[in-house]
Amino acid sequence: MVSIEHLTMEFSSKPIFDDITFLINPKDKLALVGKNGAGKTTLLRLLAGEQTPTAGNIAKVKDLTIGYLPQHLLVKDARTVMQEAQTAFSDILDIEKRVEHLTQQLADRTDYESDAYQELIEQLSHENERLTLSNVANMTAEIEKTLLGLGFERKDFERQTSEFSGGWRMRIELAKVLLKHPQLVLLDEPTNHLDIESIQWLEQFLANYNGAVVLVSHDRAFLDRVTTRTIEISLGRIYDYKVPYTQYVELRKERREQQLRAYENQQKMIADTEAFIERFRYKATKAVQVQSRIRQLDKLERLEVDEEDNSTLRLKFPPAPHSGTLPVNIEGLTKAYGDHVVFHDVEMQIRRGEKVAFVGRNGEGKSTLVKCIMDEIDYQGNLQLGHLVKIGYFAQNQASLLDEEKTVFQTIDDVAVGDIRTKIRDILGAFMFGGDNIEKKVKVLSGGERSRLAMIRLLLEPVNLLILDEPTNHLDMRSKDVLKEAIKDFTGTVIVVSHDRDFLDGLVEKVYEFGHGQVRLHLGGIREFLETKQLENLRDIEAKDKVVASADEAKPVEISANKQNYEERKQQRSQLRKVEREVEQVEQDIAQMEADIQTMEQRFANGENSEELTNEYGALKHRLDQKVYEWELLSEKVETLTNALNS
Description:
47% of the residues lie in helices and 18% in strands. The chain is of the alpha/beta class. A hairpin with a 2-residue loop joins strand 10 (328-337) and strand 11 (340-350). It is flat and about 120 Å long.
């Protein structure tokens, strides 16, 4: 379908691709992978015809239709969502207009026997046949199905596209690409602006798509579920694997080990040959052998080993200062904008050291609740932050808040204090800002570079509550892995708002699901949550269709048992919240007593030594010991209740 032949692409005399050749077959599901800057996006642009190669050729079958979704797109806001989606069927709409025009012409004419009239009839018949083959009757239904699958609601269809955020407008563009049913679909990071449910819908759509798909993505799970072939771009060359991403990783490891052995053997041969040449260069009896060895080295094709990207993030969060047992305690929280209720009666208790995920469709309130916790917006209900809680916040728009006129170095130097200022260059190097890159101005940085720079700012001061809103957007896979390990090792509390299942897997132990104005707690990790969601969706379908299969006869017992188990856990959680509030109060009492004792000790240091002060000091120390003992008992009770809930 598409033949890439001896393709070379250079920027400023630097080769991105060097004489690469491969084929794209009609039903290929192909992933392009490689480190940032390897040329993945450039190759998509070349395939889409938006760039011209320096040399070589891209041959396409005649009348090949291509749908291309770039990472960044300028969209026009002059239509409703439905009207914009309908532009995907512009060819069909043009046929409809021609049919209407021809029909009107026939109605206006009376020369029924003329050749011109017969020609009009033939044209109308031809256009009607094309219209029938185009399946125009299902156009509206197909648009609705696609928009709903990508997360829109029916009430959104008549809203102006200008009312939506950039992420939602990108979904409209994605819908248009899919609705055109092109023979070749090119997608550059399509999951960046999608929630989990929309990603799952897109996975199924692409996996079953009748045409070819070439995509770039840093979502490992998405690649594994959609693609069956992986092309790696490295050092200007490509390596073609007829396997999904996870299998490619293993095969690549084996290939690199083979490359390394061959490279080491060649280096040894070169060293031995050069040593021979140097030893016998000036001996006449060895002149022929020396010249032969020199020619041998000149003709030798030097092997290279694929570069390992050792410049990726090596994150280590500072030790988390101690905080109260309940860093976040929410009771009966409601947030509304006018008549629109985002969520209501939210109950949430996040304990010290927990790592939790906020998931759900976009627009259901995940970022809104984060803003409530940050005290950036008003709300109704009770929201309390724990004792000595210090928040580190990484927002979706954090990168856009950077001063564009400052350099990378200045951006960090402005917020660094103390000894950390002597290590700024090392820190920037760990975030792939090496060499002259630290003198770049923020305004010329890519989205990924800005995100990394914003993350560095977050790392410079110790916090005990990390709130990360979509932290993995624009990070490549290796960077995400390193960030994930750093968060796992972080000793404080973490809230992650993310749709990246692979990133959340093994990282969080509780999931809060946002949807339909409610926030529901799911104990366990993201895999357990998704399994539960699948069961719920099946039950919803069965209830809607009123279909009861014989294999489901045991379900009422199961549901009853689940309900009983839920009630027990509800009581346990209620008891746990009560004890945690008691712990919180005791911690505040201890902090106050320690402050009072410190004040008394300062009075002693200043020479005051009355009997009254001594007696008061001794009594306070005794009460402090009792409070500490009470805190230990309550903490043990919290641990016991927590273990019971997690069992």
